[in-house]
Design brief:
alpha+beta; 2 domains; MS2 Viral Coat Protein; 6-stranded antiparallel beta sheet
């Protein structure tokens, strides 16, 4: 089990910028991290990580990772949160899944989102056609 420590994650800029998400709290299986680069709490980017163990013998274990990225702008001379982008990835694993099965699912998600055909649908919010 990893201990909470700062997480450095690059953004999607042409020349990627590393953002450091520092640990804020942990409560049971849920951890919260903030990137405080804006210096304004309303502008802190947020990363949530939660592990939910199955509640029954037939249920699945879940790992949920979420991002909330606020966009700040100067409004009447005050830095104000004007919109938010967010994402949540939920991985569900059978209780009897093997380590390799879990690794495969994680790889499919990471590599699928990086796929040259899928990426433009994400950036441009366009569906597939044909």
């Amino acid at each position: 089990m990893p201990s909470m420590s700062a997480l450095t994650i690059n953004d999607g800029a042409a020349s990627p910028v590393a953002h450091t998400f520092t640990p804020q709290s942990v409560d049971g299986g849920k951890a919260l991290f903030f990137d405080k680069v804006t210096g304004i709490p309303a502008g802190y980017s947020r990363l949530d990580h939660e592990v939910r163990l199955a509640k029954s013998t037939t249920g699945a274990h879940s790992v949920i990772v979420g991002f909330l990225i606020p966009i700040m702008a100067l409004v009447n001379g005050v830095q104000t949160r004007v919109r938010v982008s967010s994402a949540q990835v939920r991985l569900n694993f059978a209780q009897d899944s093997t380590d390799q099965e879990r690794k495969d699912l994680v790889a499919y998600v990471i590599n699928g989102l990086s796929n040259a055909t899928i990426k433009p649908t994400l950036y441009n919010t366009e569906p597939f056609f044909g």
